[in-house]
Fold:
Amino acid sequence: MTVTTIILSHYKEREDNLNLMVNKLLQGTVTPGKILIFIDNPDIVFEDERVIIVRSNRPFLPVVRFALGTISGSDFCFFLDDDLSVGPKTLENFVINEIRLPESILGLEGSTLSNTAEPYTKDIPVKRGLHDSPVPVDVVIRTYFVPTQLLTAGLLLQEMYPDLPRKSLDDVFLCLGNKYLNGNSNYVISATGESDLIELPDGGVGQSHSGDHYINRNLVCRELMNIYE
Structure:
């Protein structure tokens, strides 16, 4: 079983997080075979011979990460936001649960959508922490442990509905693509102590600060729910 960790680095304010993230990943009980960092901000200065660095002068934000995963050559991809780091057993915890729950997208936080006009913002959130068993959710957020073969589901769902918004919605399309197109489940798994994540400075920036972020998430979720449910 091989795992590639993929990190997006867009915000200069989070540049100082990268070295710690790489160190923690390589100190775990299970370590990624490859770490790939995609940097789409020319102001970010980061070099590390332990990782693969891909640079672009064009800002892609999240849309590129799952596409990169499809060519990783690994069995699984672990996607990590650049305001988070892992504990000693975070990756081990994901691997153990993926063996138990094959064909699933796993995360440590997530959302069960509500059957309302605003299904995303009026969701039932599943927070990070201790759970008696994996919790089925519609959408996983912030971190994603994904069998590589499932990554095309979100890209396909986007192409099927080209009129829907796309900006910062790659995670929604991925999770709902796995649910609606593949007929698979997504889960939030337990994380405590050494398997939990470490919150890092976010620099007060991020897509969730955008005014249309939640408007578009509600719109896309509602439209896809109308079609498939």
